[in-house]
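Slide 14.
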Amino acid sequence: MLTLLDLVLPAACAGCGAAGVRWCVDCAAALAATPVRVRPRTDPGVPCWALGPYAGPGRRAVLAAKERGRLDLAEPLGLALAGGLARLRAADRPLVLIPAPSRAAAARRRGGDPVLRATREAARWLPDCQAVPLVRMWWGVRDSVGLTPSERRHNLRGRIMVCSDHGTAAEIPVNAEVVLVDDVLTTGATARESVRALAGIGVCIRAVLVMCAA
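Slide 15: predicted structure.
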């Protein structure tokens, strides 16, 4: 049923632009395959998996969520992540999802952190699963667009920190599988620094899962 908002601002699929739906069946299928193992140039030291390439519907949806204020995409993107995690996880262990950090300025500009929103949605779809935001970017991190892999590593080195704003390591069960979640894996610099920071407090990341890999 169309709402008044739909009449003023007609819905369009974030993946293909089809009218009348915010995320169509075909675009959802593009992120519903078994996650693919990827190997970024900066090795975070744990296996990395992606729902798809940074192209087509996945890329357009990530950009819409990050740069065009499409808060409504948190649910379908979270569901896509949940499907990938269901294929990767061990059935007999609890699952903890840690969203990769975003720059505070970028999150404010976007009306919140889209990775955090999608991660929480993913946890909601999975049994015995919780999202625990434990890492954040410290001040001084530049926008990574246009930076070389070495510049990205230097940009992030020592600037991803453990925080307790929304959760603590005590919330993680001893036998849990812990997965770092992000929207895009480019060079692997963010993943590596996040894994390093979490290892410093005894949290062992089992894998990284992203929506798209460049």
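Speaker note: The domain at 32-213 is CATH 3.40.50 (Rossmann fold).
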